[in-house]
Amino acid sequence: MRAIDCAGKQSPCAAALSEELVDDFEDGDARPVHPRFEAWPVYADAASTISPAPFATAAHGANGSGRAIHVSGTVADKGYLSVAAMAAGGSTDLSAYAGIAFSARGVGLVRDNVGTTDIDVAGNYDDCGRSIFLTPTWRRYVIRFDDPDFAQGNWGIRTAFAPSKVGRLVFANVQYGPLDFWVDDVVLLEPAAKPWLPSRSWKKGPLGAASGVSSAHRG
Length: 219
Ligand SMILES: [Ca+2]
Hints:
By secondary structure, the protein is mainly beta. The chain has helices at 117-122, 199-202; strands at 17-23, 37-39, 42-44, 49-51, 57-59, 67-75, 81-87, 99-107, 109-116, 128-133, 139-144, 166-173, 177-191. It has a single domain (17-202), classed as Galactose-binding lectin (Jelly Rolls, Sandwich), CATH 2.60.120. The strands form two sheets. Strands 1, 4, 5, 6, 8, 11 and 13 form a seven-stranded antiparallel sheet that branches. Strand 5 and strand 6 form a beta hairpin.
């Protein structure tokens, strides 16, 4: 996969990161394949319209793949529309990860949010995330948790991002009115091996293991 949108202080931002698949939607179901996540619900307020509802995958995914998410609708004034990968059991610890990446296309603005349970406690849902301008063709986006552009929307109670308390990965509207976007190949990004560091100082695990390199799912 190619990382072609790397806003922020590091470039290329995904060069030293390995990927763990959250979902590629090829199985056509509403459950992410990564064990850290358990469902893909869609949300809209009563005045907005959203399709599909409930969640369903659509044909014609990224990179010639079979399926993806395709969400469309009309967001009412002060309304909301989103699709989200919900953490299994309500919360998952992503502090070992550097961020997420996904492919997207569409028209207009969509916001990728990483919601945390302490934001919910604050009661404002002003999740940390980043807004992206969609293009008609598929592009790959990398969202690093340490990117200066990864921030709250600046309308709610200020709350520091807590990667140990992630409740959801969200793709949501930024503006009101018509919205149409596709998402595919959602992954977690994990720091890859740093061969100049002894493995025991880099990461816990069996000595002699490929330190930090893993494409397997983490339970
Ligand atoms: Ca796909």
